[in-house]
């Protein structure tokens, strides 16, 4: 994942993540570490990276790596809970 377009690489690897777990466990989980970083990237890359991590998380070693990574968990929680576009309710508008 270190060479070429991350978008293209992430898109192609989604399919591999469903059937080729050893590909993601090489070099002491180096691809998993890369995918964790890509979670912070722009939406299309982050979505593919997260999909891959979910697909390979059935492996105990990968799951431990994900579960013990506080920075990853914080990033995921902030992406889920932080609203980028504030909701404006009708009753909060002036003149109501």
Brief sketch in words of this structure:
The protein has 96 residues and is mainly alpha-helical. The protein is built from five helices and no strands.
Search tags:
single chain, 96 residues, mainly alpha, globular
Account of the protein in words:
With 96 residues, the chain is an all-alpha fold. It has one domain. The chain is built from five helices and no strands. It has helices at 6-17, 22-38, 43-56, 60-67, 70-81. The chain is globular, with a radius of gyration of 17 Å. The N and C termini lie far apart (53 Å). The mean pLDDT is 84.
Give me the strand/helix succession.
HHHHH
Structural class: mainly alpha
Separation of the first and last Cα atoms? 53 Å
Q: How many independent structural domains?
A: 1
Number of strands: 0
The description of the largest β-sheet is: none
With helices defined by DSSP (H or I, 4 residues minimum), what is the helix count? 5
Strand content: under 5%
**Oligomeric form of this entry?**
single chain
- If you average the pLDDT, what whole number results? 84
**What is the 3D shape?**
globular
Which regions are unreliable across 5 or more consecutive residues at pLDDT < 50?
A: none
Radius of gyration, in Å, reads 17 Å
What is the helix fraction of residues, given as a range?
55-70%
